[in-house]
Amino acid sequence: MSKLAPLCAALFVGLWAARVSAEPTQPILTIAVGTVTKHFTAAELLSRADLASVQIPPHVDYKVSLTLQAVPLLDLLAQLPLEGSDRLEARATDGFVAQIPLALIEAGKSGGSVAWVAVEDANHPWPKLPGKDNSAGPFYLIWQYPERSRVSSEQWPYMLEKLTAVQSPELRWPQLKVDAALPADAPAWHGEDVFVTQCLPCHSAAPSQPRQFAVSNALGVGG
User: Fold this and answer.
1) Which residues neighbour 205 within 8 Å (Cβ) at sequence distance 6 or greater?
2) pLDDT digit string (tens) for 119-165?
3) CA–CA distance, 44 with 61 (Å, rounded to integer)
4) Where in the chain is CATH 3.90.420.10?
C-alpha cells in the first residue's frame, strides 16, 4: 500500500469534519408531553404538507402586518398524550415563559382563535422586532382571529424553543389560588386570572409568597 494512502484518508476525514462543523446548526422546536418528546427542525416544519401562509395583525409584536409560513399547532399536538395536562408552557430562548391553556388551543376547532407555529426560513429572514437586534424567530406562536377568544399579547411567545404540557399554575403553585370562600364577584378572582395570563410569564411565583400576595399585586392592591 502506498505510504500516501493513510495521509490521504486522514486529509479526507479532516476536510469532512471541517465541512460538518462549518454548516449552521438547524433551529429545533421541542414538544414535550409526559414521557414523549418530539423534536422538529425548521427545515422539517417548512416541508410539511400542512404548512400555510398566515397573516398576523400589526398590533402585537410587530407594528406592521406580516404574512408568515406556519404549521397548525393542533396538528403538532395530534396523537400526543395530553390527558392530565391543561396548559402548554411555551418557553422562549430569552427565558420568557407563557402559559397557554389547552382549552384556548382546542377552541380553534369550533370557531375560536386558531393557534399556529410560525417558522422562520433562514433564506428569507423575518424583520427585526422593534427596538431589538433579532426577529421573532426561529419559531413564533401566532394566532388567527385572536379577537374571537380574546388572546392576550403574552400568549404570542416569540423566539420559541420548547412547548411542554403541564398542569395549570394554580395546581402547581397552590399559593396562587384565592380563598374559595370569597364571593364570586370579588376582585381577587379577576386578579388570579390577570396574574396567570399577564404577570406570571415574567414573575415567577415563589413558594414562600402568601396565597393572596401575587394576586393582590396583579390587581395593584394590597401587599
Assistant:
1) 169, 173, 175, 176, 214
2) 999 999 999 999 999 999 999 999 999 999 999 999 999 999 999 99
3) 25
4) 28-167
CA distance 160 to 30: 9
69 Cβ neighbours under 8 A, 6+ residues apart: 46, 51, 52, 53, 54, 118, 119, 121
Q: Please give the grid coordinates belonging to residue 162.
A: 420548547
pTM of the model: 0.72
pLDDT for 17-49, tens place per residue?
Answer: 544 344 568 899 999 999 999 999 999 999 999
Three-state DSSP string of 142-186: EEECHHHCCCCHHHCCCCEEEEEEECCHHHHCHHHCCCCCCCCCC
Residues 6+ apart with CB under 8 A from 156: 60, 61, 140, 141, 142, 143
111 half-sphere exposure, CB direction, 13 A CA radius:
0
Q: What's the chain's length in residues? A: 223
CATH number belonging to the domain at 28-167, selected among 3.90.420.10, 3.40.109.10, 3.40.228.10, 3.20.20.140: 3.90.420.10
3-state SS, 8-26, equals HHHHHHHHHHHHHHHCCCC
CB 222 within 8 A of CB 216: yes
CA–CA gap between residue 203 and residue 128 (Å, rounded): 26
| The pLDDT value given to residue 84 | 86
Which position has the grid cell 374559595?
180
